[in-house]
Specification:
heterodimer, A: mainly beta, Immunoglobulin-like, 7-stranded mixed β-sheet, B: mainly beta, 4-stranded antiparallel β-sheet, 12 strands, 0% helix, 56% strand, globular
Chain lengths: 116, 117
Amino acid sequence: EPEVTQTPSHQVTQMGQEVILRCVPISNHLYFYWYRQILGQKVEFLVSFYNNEISEKSEIFDDQFSVERPDGSNFTLKIRSTKLEDSAMYFCASSEVPADRAPEAFFGQGTRLTVV
Amino acid sequence: AQSVTQPDIHITVSEGASLELRCNYSYGATPYLFWYVQSPGQGLQLLLKYFSGDTLVQGIKGFEAEFKRSQSSFNLRKPSVHWSDAAEYFCAVGESRKGSTLGRLYFGRGTQLTVWP
């Protein structure tokens, strides 16, 4: 069964460092998303991406964040200068534009980011 | 703004007992509704979804959920819980964008299910 894969599963970084979280969405999907879950809190939407541009972003997704689909298969989330409060589980998801069935988002296993 | 409420943070049931996890949402139109499950160390797995039609939807692992528009609810049920069902369960609301595409999802806080042997 096709799945969304994320690497790494766990990343520890020092405050102020840049991190790149990587995702490989399901191959025929066209919409891509990043969500995060701070420990003990809700899963929160960060950004959606379609046709090589951001289609929607939340108030969380400030100038420190960026997304890219560099090579047609990977979908990355970059945090330019990490802060302690960026520590969270980051989920990548993808969905397709259906021809004959209802859309759904498929989630990866997540990358746990710890900023120290 | 859309919101999702899962009033139960933690539920404990005995194996073989029935289960109902509550979910209420706030949304202006008919939403897309989802239940996801997250086992330890795993990602979010879709259990079931509601888009339109029959308000009682069947999902994987023997789960079902019923959409009640009058109560703005989408409660998840299972008649007999198995120890392997212990996990965290998330209700989510989505909205249609640009036709049949899926926009952002709004998640509840999750309900942690513990199953006693």
